[in-house]
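Postdoc handover notes: sequence design on the structure in folder B. Input C-alpha cells:
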C-alpha cells in the first residue's frame, strides 16, 4: 500500500489534443487507483487555442468526476509563423466532440494563469511535484522567466517533445510541441540537467487501434466516456491515415501517453543521456532537436532521451489502466447498467 507521501504529485501541462486526452485519462486512472495525485492541470495554447484547451481540460475532468482539480489558463502565443493543429485534432481539439460532453465547469475568465499555478505549486512543495508537459513548453518557460530557478524545484520534468533520429511531424525535422515554441523549449532544456524527453523516436511506434479502444470500453460501452473515447479514436484515425502517420495501419499515435509510460512503467523505455539543443533560427530546421553524437567529451548533458520503447509492454499497462475508468464510470452514465466500483 502506497503511503500518501510516496505518491507521485503531478501537474499535467497539456493542450488537448486527441492524444493528450488519452494521456490525461491514463493519469486519471492512476489517480483513481491511488497511484498518483493530480495537483493541477495547466492548459497551454498549442494544438488549438488557449480557450479551447482550457475548456477541454475542464470537460475531461468533469466527465471523470475530477472537476474539483484546478485548471490553469494560458495566454495565446503571439507568433505569426506557426499555425495550430486543428486539422489533426478537430477545431475544438477533441475531434469536434466537445458538444457531446457535459459543459466545462471551470471558468476561463476567473482561472489563474498556468505559469502562476506552476510557480505557486513548486514553491509550496519544492522537490515534490513532477511536471508532465505534453504541449508546447510555453507555460514552463514563462514560469522560469518570471521566477528564475523555479523549474529546479520540480521533482522531475517529463516532456513529450522532439525528433532525433527520425523525421518530424510538423516539418521535415521538427516535432510539433518544439516547433510551436522553440525558444520556450530551449529555456526548459537550460533550466536543469535532467529533463526527461519522450520524442517521436519512441512515440511513432505507439499506434492505438480501434480494437484496443473497444477492449478498453467493453465493460461499459454505453457510458458517455466510452462513446466519447470510441468517437475520438475514429476521428483521430481518420486524420492519422490522411497524414500517413501510422504506416497505413488504421490507428493513431498516442504520443503524449509516453510520458506516463516512463513515470509508471519505466521498464518499457530505454533512455540515453545527452545534451539536447533546439534549433531556434533555421529557415528549414526551426524546432529541430539535436544530440551531438561526436566522440568528443561531453560535460554538459541536460537530458534523458528515450530512444526505444517496448510497445507491447507499454500497451499492456496502458490499456489495463484505462479499463479501470470504465468500471468506475458506470455510475456517471445516463445509460448505466453497471454498479459503482
Ligand atoms: Ca499535446
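Designed sequence:
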Amino acid at each position: 500500500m502506497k503511503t500518501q507521501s510516496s505518491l507521485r504529485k503531478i501537474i499535467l501541462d497539456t493542450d488537448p489534443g486527441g492524444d493528450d486526452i488519452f494521456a490525461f485519462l491514463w493519469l486519471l486512472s492512476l489517480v483513481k487507483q491511488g497511484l498518483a495525485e493530480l495537483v493541477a492541470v495547466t492548459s497551454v495554447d498549442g494544438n488549438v487555442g488557449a480557450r479551447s484547451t482550457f475548456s477541454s481540460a475542464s470537460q475531461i475532468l468533469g466527465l471523470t468526476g475530477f472537476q474539483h482539480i484546478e485548471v490553469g489558463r494560458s495566454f495565446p502565443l503571439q507568433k505569426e509563423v506557426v499555425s495550430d493543429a486543428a486539422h489533426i485534432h478537430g477545431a475544438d481539439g477533441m475531434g469536434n466532440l466537445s458538444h457531446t460532453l457535459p459543459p466545462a465547469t471551470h471558468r476561463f475568465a476567473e482561472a489563474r494563469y498556468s505559469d502562476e499555478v506552476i510557480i505557486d505549486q513548486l514553491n509550496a512543495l519544492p522537490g515534490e511535484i513532477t511536471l508532465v508537459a505534453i504541449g508546447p513548453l510555453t507555460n514552463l518557460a514563462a514560469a522560469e522567466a518570471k521566477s528564475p530557478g523555479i523549474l529546479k524545484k520540480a521533482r522531475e520534468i517529463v516532456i513529450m517533445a522532439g525528433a532525433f533520429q527520425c523525421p518530424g511531424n510538423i516539418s521535415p525535422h521538427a516535432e510539433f510541441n518544439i516547433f510551436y515554441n522553440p525558444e520556450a523549449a530551449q529555456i526548459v532544456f537550460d533550466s536543469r540537467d535532467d529533463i526527461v524527453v519522450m520524442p517521436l523516436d519512441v512515440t511513432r511506434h505507439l499506434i492505438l487501434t480501434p480494437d484496443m479502444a473497444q477492449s478498453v470500453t467493453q465493460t461499459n460501452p454505453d457510458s458517455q466516456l466510452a462513446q466519447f473515447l470510441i468517437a475520438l479514436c475514429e476521428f483521430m484515425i481518420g486524420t492519422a491515415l490522411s497524414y500517413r502517420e501510422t504506416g497505413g495501419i488504421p490507428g493513431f499515435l498516442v504520443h503524449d501517453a509516453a510520458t506516463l509510460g516512463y513515470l509508471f512503467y519505466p521498464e518499457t523505455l530505454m533512455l540515453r543521456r545527452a545534451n539536447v539543443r533546439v534549433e531556434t533560427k533555421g529557415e528549414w530546421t526551426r524546432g529541430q532537436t539535436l544530440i551531438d553524437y561526436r566522440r568528443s567529451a561531453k560535460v554538459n548533458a541536460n537530458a534523458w532521451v528515450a530512444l526505444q520503447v517496448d510497445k507491447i509492454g507499454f500497451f499492456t499497462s496502458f490499456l489495463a489502466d484505462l479499463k479501470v475508468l470504465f468500471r468506475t464510470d458506470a455510475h456517471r452514465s445516463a445509460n448505466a447498467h453497471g454498479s459503482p466500483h
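Context for whoever picks this up: The first strand starts at residue 8 and ends at 14. Don't rerun without checking with the PI first.
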